[in-house]
Write a structure and sequence with these properties.
Elements: H1 2-39, H2 46-53, H3 56-75, H4 87-110, H5 122-152, E1 158-163, H6 167-178, H7 180-183, E2 185-192, E3 206-208, H8 212-219, E4 223-226, H9 233-243, E5 250-252, H10 254-258, E6 275-276, H11 284-304, H12 306-319, E7 325-331, E8 337-343, H13 368-375, H14 384-389, E9 393-395, H15 402-408, E10 424-426, H16 428-432, H17 439-454, H18 458-473
Parallel strand pairs: 1-2, 1-4, 2-3, 4-5, 9-10
Antiparallel strand pairs: 5-6, 7-8
Length: 478
Amino acid sequence: MKVRLDINNKAHRQRIKYVVGDFVMSNLAWFIYNIIRYQTGNVVGWPYLVSYLKSDMVLLGQLFFPLLMMVTYAFSGYYNNVCRKSRIQELLTTLASAGINTLMIFFLALINDVIGVRSADYGMILILWALLFGLVYLVRAIITNNASKQIKARKWTFPTLIIGSGPAAVAFADKLEGKRNFSGHDVKGFVNIPGEDPVKDNPLPQYELNDIQDVCQRLGIWELIVVPSRDDTFSTMNAINKLFPVGLPIMISPEYFNKMQTPVTISDLYGEPLVNISRSSMSDSGKNIKRALDIIISLVALVVLLPFFAIVALIIKLTSPGPIFYLQERIGLHNKPFQIIKFRSMVQNAEQAGKPQLSSDDDPRITSFGRFMRKYRIDELPQFWNVLKGEMSLVGPRPERKFYIDQITPIVPAYALLHQVRPGITSMGMVKFGYAKNLDEMLERVKYDLMYLNNASLINDIKILIYTIKIVLTGRGM
């Protein structure tokens, strides 16, 4: 555990360096720009310049605009992963952030400039963009370069477990060992995948898959790399399913990932190209914006819909005996269970037999008001609370019960990959297919959810939300 804490502390300190460096350089860039902007005006001279820089408006801008820039940096995803950065990605992210900040400042402060810099003066805009990019990128590059030196010197290492113990896993571990100065991987052992024949006389420890949580905590594991030695997709995906609750990055070789007929996005080029299957293909900036929108929209919805919720609750109470809300365990992000909340649309104790049952349009368990709620998806509205808590998202794969997941996974092993993301109130499966009445229909709907996963983006989320609103307004919920 000490190893894990050590690398976490280093990551935390690295993040602080980036944040402080960005803030200081953004302040300096804005300060220098103000001097240049003043010198382009009609009045020149140091006494006037000092007086100008000490004015309340300039001092307020010196505080406000760098803070505004920090919001852009945070949403860009630059601070999400700080230990092993791609130099090219760092360059492009800084360029884009500088451009966005320049445009925001232009429309907030410069478009009606009173000291002679008119909106048509594109040269001044380019100067601001160059200052923001150049100064911020300079410090970022220095910090990143220092981190790379720490990794190459083996002062920073990332404790790693290889999931698999066959010949392919051992050979892959040898490759990592040969390139450890570039990637920082420190292989601590192997985890047996059921059905594989472990390599004998392996010098590193071997662990059982069922003990993965305890092993990761005890060894301070940073990353899991799946390297199966058998061409058995079901066994491998079943193993991966057990890795999600650990909450660590799960990497896999692109050659094996290709066998799942799923588009590959290379996310790691340190030492060996690997695919991170514990996170979706959406960019870090997209994920940050998506989560921010989830929080804002769900909070506003809960407040605005509160009177409507009270009316619905009263009708439920008057039309059928039992509780107002219905709680049910579903499986969410990283294969972790959570309690989904809905307005109760069925009679109380609708599953008395103890076995989960899917509903149909003519299901006698549905109450009269429940049928109306399901038609317009009113019963789903309390899930905004799940979204606010971080258990769900507005858009994502449909969350299922473990009972059905255990039946789906042997048929569609790639279903395990849906645990990369938060499940959604609405989904591509719900929009294109709707509610499933049996296992076969659930399998059809899963195809759409996997399609969403492979094409996750904010634009597609917006499209799904628009289609969902259309379905709700036209009463095609069931």
